[in-house]
Amino acid sequence: MVRSGIRWFFAAFATAALVSCGRLPPSRHRNSIVIAISTTPTSLDPARATTQVCQDIARQQFETLTQVSKGGSIVGGLADTWSAAGSVITFHLRHATFSDGSLVTPAEVKFSLSRACQPAFSAGEIGTYLGDIDGADQCIAGKSESITGIDIIQREGIVKFRLKGPTASFVAKLSNPMCSILKARGKELLGSGPYRKTSVEEGEHYNFEAVAGGAAATELLEFRVVQDTATRLNMARRQLIDVCPLGLGDTATPPVTGYSLVTIPWTGDYPDPENFIASMLDSHSSARKSSFSDPKADELIASARANGSLKSWRAAESLGLTSHWIVPIIHQTEQFLVSPRAQPEWLTPWGLAPVRLVKARLTR
Asked: For 43-98, where are the E strands, in sequence order?
């Protein structure tokens, strides 16, 4: 027992010495970024990415036609340009490749979005994002394997969406990771993101490696499940994790030397008032989360959905706040500790951005 205790003492002392002199513990690869997550991912299939952690992981492997900037504006993803003519929105794809080197084409776009709507793959929330497309409802109901309202011109890299009616928020909805574009190779799902999956130990860690030419910020990327806040803080102090989420109401006391504190406000699934107002006030919405019903509100919402009028959205919101019982309670924020090896810019109100926006400053 005494010898075992002595061995443990010297092992702990050696580890502490390595950390104190700036060297990383041997359990960690030098050219890696380790992100702690407090919950276990329910799925690595982007079509089932209904939780924040699933969406954070999906963004590292897969891309969407559009994406949200940190400031909340919609910018190009796999599509570099788009235009709307009434109920038809046309996207032009940029040059991009999947992790096996094959090109991303309009055919994969139609396949991916149709697949996301099929009951065998869908998590049940896809109608919020793709339900505006003509024919998507039949696909969601299992009556069709392909969305008839998606037309493609393969050689020209063009994808056209025929919507049920003018929908100002549709381009923003396509930024959600559940609308990721992928290539199915057997049971393997390939993406065009900066990383590819290498190994998974369910409930423990999820490992990824950089894809050549993908502008990845680090050679290896790991998501490590650490449910307890105190344990995460201890791992940060030992330089074992680079992004450390704090629990609600938790603080880093004492502070972790060298780590910066990043506060992120809570937002919706996509940057448009429809995400909140329609789900609470639209009596025709399948995603409605209340029993509120007002014909005037429905009229205002229909107008705002078609033309994006902020004035109409505010008028509908006012009905819910002043004429009925809907009352805002809290506005949640999240806090993270970020090591010098990582970048605060990766953390956005819409979740973890692809870890390639800013090159990681690796400790030497």
From this structure: 66-68, 74-76, 79-85, 88-93
Take residue 144 and report the two structure tokens written for it: 């069709």
Compute CA distances 154 → 80, 94, 108, 142, 246, whole Å: 16, 13, 10, 26, 46
Beta carbons within 10 angstroms of residue 153's beta carbon: 12
Average pLDDT in the chain = 87
Which residues on adjacent β-strands are paired with residue 199?
A: 207
Q: How far apart are CA 199 and CA 252, in angstroms?
A: 31
Q: Between these two residues, 248 and 39, which has the higher pLDDT value?
A: 39
Helices 295-307 and 310-318, interaxial angle, to 10°? 160
H/E/C letters for each residue in 244-257? EEECCCCCCCCCCC
Average pLDDT over residues 9-31: 46
- What's the Cα-to-Cα distance from 256 to each of 27, 269, 285, rounded to whole Å? 20, 31, 46
Question: pLDDT tens digits, residue range 23-68?
Answer: 444 456 678 999 999 999 999 999 999 999 999 999 999 999 999 9
Which helix (H) or strand (E) segment holds residue 351: the answer is strand 351-352
Residue pLDDT, tens place only, 129-174: 999 999 999 999 999 999 999 999 999 999 999 999 999 999 999 9
Task: Using DSSP, state whether 190 is helix, strand or coil.
Answer: strand
- DSSP classification of residue 258: T
Environment class of residue 349 by beta-carbon count within 10 Å: exposed (0-12), middle (13-18) or buried (19+)?
middle
